[in-house]
Amino acid sequence: MRWCPSSVLHLLRCARLQLYTRRGRNRLPLWIREKWAYVRLLVQSLYFNSLTDSDVVFDSIFEPVFWTVDYVTRWFGLVFVFLVVILVSSCVVIAYVVLLPLVLNTYSPAWIVWHLCYGNWIIIMIGFHYYKATKTSPGFPPTEKNDSPFVAVCKKCIMPKPARTHHCGICNRCILKMDHHCPWLNNCVGHSNHRYFFSFCLFMTLGCVYCSISGRNLFLDAYNALERFKHLDMEKPGIPVTGMGILIGLLPPGQTNYQTSAPVYTFKEKMINKSIIYMWVLTSTVGVALGALTIWHAVLISRGETSIERHINSKEKKRMAKRGKVYRNPFNYGRLNNWKVFFGVEKRSHWVTRVLLPSGHAPHGDGLTWDVFPVKKDLIPV
Predict the structure, then answer these.
(1) Is 208 helix (H, G, I), strand (E, B) or coil?
(2) N or C: which terminus of the chain has fewer CB atoms within 10 Å of its end residue's CB?
(3) Which sequence ranges are marked TM in the entry (predicted)?
């Protein structure tokens, strides 16, 4: 007797129906099943393709933290800018009101000319580059359809991203050749204002070092003066009177010290000394901190990379090293060429007119396309 295929299929269907019926009796409530399905979807989204790594998982988990930091930084940007303006203005006022009269009364004519020229040049360069860094747009990729090449699509803007372009969560836009978002500028540092940012850091550091070195002796004198008068205020002034002085009646009965008047120390002198101390401490600390940041950015510029590309290139070097290959930064044109491109130096005189003097010239290139490996010849011959 042979089995009929139709009867076998009928038995399988009956068994399957009974199994589903038993499962249906033990099902959880609908809202619990919906929550569980959502959790499973979130977990599966962390490894939905082969490109997912630990960085993607980390970003996904800490996305609320990043959003909070971006939101706070966006709203506190104006506070940071106001703080920079107040601190720099206070130092300028002290330099003109307190230090300049001392320089005119104590220094030789040659040193007076040096301090006036260098100090005013530094102030102009700091003010110009800070204003341009805050007000100049860092550069954005085009939003309309065009033929510009791109290397990826931004997952937040859903727009094509040219080479060296990255998304800023604080500005909520993609930035051409993005370096970082600077809260002290309340602006992103990108292709169009990177030179202004670095020049501001450079001249601010030079100004702080200048104030710290030239004002060291003034700081020590002011500090010693405050300490000296502080001790005089704590001690009771007077000269002991003994022997014949008591007999001839120099002092009233019962008094053994002749009270002398306290030395003259006006409120103006006290404020001058405190202003000198405030300026020296502020410029010294800012000079050390900002100097380290300036040196770091100078190293990155020499290598032809931004702060973001520094991390990307480091990962690429490790990845290529595992394959027995050497990674090479395609935007590194050589140390001198990198500085020429960064400052926009096209002839020898530009080292003075575009680097040592205020200049609002546009950066090299459009930020959308970049030359790759121009090593044999100067990118900008000088």
Answers:
(1) helix
(2) N
(3) 75-99, 111-131, 196-219, 239-256, 276-301
Q: Is 346 exposed, middle or buried (0-12, 13-18, 19+ CB in 10 A)?
A: middle
* Burial of residue 112 (number of CB atoms within 10 Å: 0-12, 13-18, 19+): middle
Of the candidates 91, 168, 174, 182, the residue annotated as catalytic is 182
Give dist(CA 100, CA 115) in Å, integer: 9
Alpha helices in the chain (DSSP H): 5-25, 30-45, 54-61, 63-94, 100-106, 109-135, 194-214, 216-234, 244-247, 267-303, 307-322, 335-343, 350
CA distance 305 to 180: 12
160 three-class SS: strand
Q: How many Å from the N-terminal Cα to the C-terminal Cα in the chain?
A: 100
pLDDT tens, 7-41?
544 555 666 556 555 554 457 788 888 888 888 88
What CA–CA distance (Å, rounded) separates 296 from 27?
A: 61
Q: What are the φ and ψ backbone dihedral angles of 257, each rounded to 5 degrees?
A: -120, 140
Q: Tell whether the model's pLDDT for residue 113 goes beyond 70.
A: yes
Residues whose CB falls within 8 Å of the CB of residue 273, separated by 6 or more in sequence, listed in order: 222, 223, 225, 226
257 bridge partner residues: 240
Pairing of the two strands 239-240 and 187-189: unpaired
Three-state DSSP at 382 gives coil
Q: How many Å apart are CA 189 and CA 297, to the nearest integer?
A: 12
Tens of pLDDT, residues 326-375: 998 989 999 999 999 999 999 999 999 999 999 999 998 888 888 876 54
Q: How far apart are CA 147 and CA 369, in angstroms?
A: 11
**188 contacts 175 by C-beta, under 8 angstroms:** yes
Gap between the Cα atoms of 73 and 81, Å rounded? 12
139: left (phi over 0), alpha (psi -120 to 50) or beta: left
CB atoms within 10 A of CB 364: 19
- Catalytic, 182? Answer yes
Provide the 8-state DSSP code for 29.
P
Q: What values do phi and psi take at 58, rounded to 5?
A: -65, -45
